[in-house]
Amino acid sequence: MSLFTLKKIGLCLTPLLLCAAAQAHSPYLKPNTFSAEEQRKHVTVEASFAEGDLRPDVAMKSDTFQVVGPDGKKLPLTPAAVLKDASYLEVPLGAGNGTYLVSSGVRKGRLAKGVLREGKVVFSERAEDAKPGDQPIDVQSITRADVYVTRGRPGAVDFDTEGVEIFPVTRPYELYAGEPVTVRVRENRKPLAGETLTVIADGQNYVSQKQAELDFSTNAAGEVSFKPRTAGLYLLQVRVRRASADNPALWISTTATLTVEVQPQP
To answer: Would you give the DSSP letter of residue 97?
Structure first.
């Protein structure tokens, strides 16, 4: 990943609703279709960073782009085009009918300077913002973006994955406006409790009654549930921060996203 890209990246389900918070640039994957017809042999996926609506702003670059087919086999992906604002993947659907996971993989970002203040990571470039008791730390950023697409008849979605991810408990091809959607935040397939998941509705530039970004806390099973108010695209995001196991002065900040399509009621 280039330093230019990293510098531009900044970095609510069980229903404990927390206050909404403005988000910086978020990684996302957006396919040209979430449900491909059986005769279709590929989908095109946009990979970028955006703030708010899913409009490409900073191209996503990754050495670990991949697709996992219905057969569970992983296939590395190389972008068909890398522009300034977005990368584009032509994802083959060669494993036949079923549901595929398209992922950026785990992307290691830059090492930033921060402080630990009252147990929380704080970034500031101004010396005058320092407070007594601040503990200087280094923060290593990690990002991951996922999306599920289906060719023909849908299939299982529980693939063998690593790292922090947002797993769709409610199948991603069965999401409808006004109905509960449940997802699980997990790391190496183990649930993460007490993490904050943000729900971001796309297309807010075009509506008079905007949907605010909402934050929810995961329960003991790592799960959250919410009811999307309207059909459309939604970006789900979680950020997990903790000290490195072997170095308390190094913190790991992992941001994971999942793009989903919510259908209108039949």
So the answer is: S
Rounded Cα distance between 121 and 11, Å, is 12
pLDDT tens by residue, 69-87: 999 999 999 999 999 999 9
Please count the residues of the chain. Answer: 266
pLDDT digits (tens, 9 = 90+) for 199-251: 999 998 888 888 889 999 999 999 999 999 999 999 999 999 999 989 989 99
Token code pair at residue 51 = 């703030």
Contact between 175 and 260 under an 8 Å Cβ cutoff? The reply is yes
Model's pTM, two decimal places?
Answer: 0.87
How many domains are there within the chain? 1
Q: CA 256, 146, 19 angle in degrees (round to 5)?
A: 40
Q: CA dist 101 to 27, 137, 143, 196, Å?
A: 16, 35, 16, 23
What is the distance between the terminal CA atoms of the chain, rounded to a whole angstrom?
A: 42
- Report the distance separating Cα 169 and Cα 95, nearest Å: 23
Work out the pLDDT band at 125, boundaries 50, 70, 90: low
Domain with 101 in it: 3-262
Instruction: State the Cα–Cα distance between residues 88 and 159, nearest whole angstrom.
Output: 23
Q: What's the distance, CA 174 to chain centroid? A: 19
Residue 198 exposure: Cα atoms within 13 Å on the Cβ side: 23
pLDDT of 127 reads 66
Separation in Å, CA 188 to CA 192, 198, 228: 10, 20, 27
What DSSP state is assigned to residue 210? P
